[in-house]
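User: Please predict the structure of the protein below. I'd like the answer in structure-token form so I can feed it into my own downstream comparison script.

Assistant: Understood. Taking the following sequence of 243 residues as input:
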Amino acid sequence: MMYKALVLMTTLGLTTNAAIANTCESQSATLQAEYKIHTHSANSDKTKLLNLWRQPNVVAHEYPQTRITETWEHVQQRLIKPTRYFDAHNRAIEYQPGESVHGKTETSWSYRNQLFSDSLLASMEPGKTVGEGCERSQTYTLTKGDATWTLIWLPELHIARSFKVLSPSQTVEWTLTKLSFDPAPIDAFFAKRFTYQTTDFADIGDDHTDPFLTKMVHQGFIEKGASGYYNTDGEAIGSSHHH
């Protein structure tokens, strides 16, 4: 009788763990996470927002300050298809899966999907773990030069709760301010952008009559010399940059 009870308890425990894992995996696949990014130095004090939107095999980084959204679609589990949406104009620039964007090819799905790549996590020193279930968090630290990085990671959801870079010259702090798993607004977010007028990047040089494309090229939002990677303002930067 005791043996049967032990087997039953063990089975229930495994079932509960599996159910929790399935719930966390489901939540991780479809979510919206809003981050407040505060940068402080002797001469500057700025706060900006970055929204991470996820559906299975597609992720978006929304930059409210510039009204630009970057999306990446995981195609056949190996190729990554980038698209850049200009939300103020209902227009989009589309790249082909695996296509070199400004000399760089997207290869790190975890970086786009999580904002913090698996390779970065692997390079950091793991610390204490607190909480349980989907809310379990783990602290990671890293020293780079004179800067100390501290990341509070939610491993079941594959997102950061907070991230801080402390150096003599400035402090940068990311804080998770909103987390939602409601599929309706997430579906609506992606559906709206899928209605934008889309131009293939390869065709931009052939069209000299589109005022929108001309304006974006002149403003540097579509630039041949950029890297294809963007900062937290949604602005192109000169070299690849993996958090």
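That's the full token string. The first helix runs from residue 2 to 29.
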